[in-house]
Specification:
There is one protein chain. The protein is of the alpha+beta class. It has a domain of 134 residues: Electron Transport, Fmn-binding Protein, Chain A (Pnp Oxidase, Chain A). The chain contains 6 helices and 9 strands. Strands 1, 2, 3, 4, 5, 6, 7, 8 and 9 form a 9-stranded antiparallel beta sheet that branches. Helix 5 crosses helix 6. The radius of gyration is 19 Å and the shape is elongated. The chain starts with 11 loop residues before the first helix and ends with a strand.
Length: 207
């Protein structure tokens, strides 16, 4: 995967499974990033064709893709549900590496959404009910009132997952790896496939 000098090599293992390379780099970042190695810039497009980008946390990854959770009534939720496409970028300054994903997006299963929602701190689960994400908020006090209202409503009982809160899986058609090089002569490898069930092809790019 990585050669002794820190560059990127092309070989059969890389072509067959770029997720192995991603997992290796994510593990490196996890050991050195001071904060949130799973943070990624998520890009979507609105109804006017204008791009939107924001930081979110990846919560799972495997050979199917990368998973994040959100309120489907938020800006990103609405935009993804309209196009079922997105792009994401991880950039880890501590190891001078970056990975970009582009592809199709599907909604995760109810079981996956329930499992993750129930693993969240109680305050975060209440927040999912209290926040009308991305919509205008008259004041911070109004939000605090909503938090207090839902806290009182649920009391000590279990907090169910709202119907409008779930997860997305970005299933990549393209994964690009960027490795910092001297004199800005960086290493770039792009893995592409025609469809989700197709085999990966790989090419090296000029920096």
């Amino acid at each position: 995967m990585n050669d002794p000098a820190g560059g990127l090599t092309i070989n059969d293992r890389d072509v067959a499974n770029p997720f192995e390379q991603f997992a290796e780099w994510l593990a490196l970042a996890g050991a050195s990033e001071p904060n949130d190695p799973t943070a990624m810039a998520l890009a979507t497009v609105d109804g006017d064709g204008l791009p939107n980008v924001r930081m979110v946390l990846m919560r799972a990854h495997d050979e199917r893709g990368i998973v994040f959770f959100t309120n489907f009534e938020s800006a990103k939720g609405v935009e993804i549900m309209a196009s079922h496409k997105a792009a994401a970028c991880f950039h880890w300054k501590s190891i001078r590496k970056s990975v970009r994903f582009r592809g199709e997006v599907e909604v995760v299963s109810d079981a996956e959404a329930d499992d993750y929602f129930n693993s969240r701190p109680r305050g975060s689960r209440i927040g999912a009910w209290a926040s009308k994400q991305s919509r205008p908020l008259e004041s911070r006090f109004a939000l605090e009132k909503e938090v207090a209202r839902w806290t009182a409503k649920f009391g000590v009982s279990e907090i169910p997952r709202p119907d409008y809160w779930s997860g997305f899986r970005l299933k990549p058609l393209s994964i690009e790896f960027w490795n910092n090089g001297k004199f800005r002569l960086h290493d770039r490898l792009r893995y592409e496939r025609e469809g989700i069930e197709e085999a990966w092809g790989v090419s090296r790019l000029y920096p």
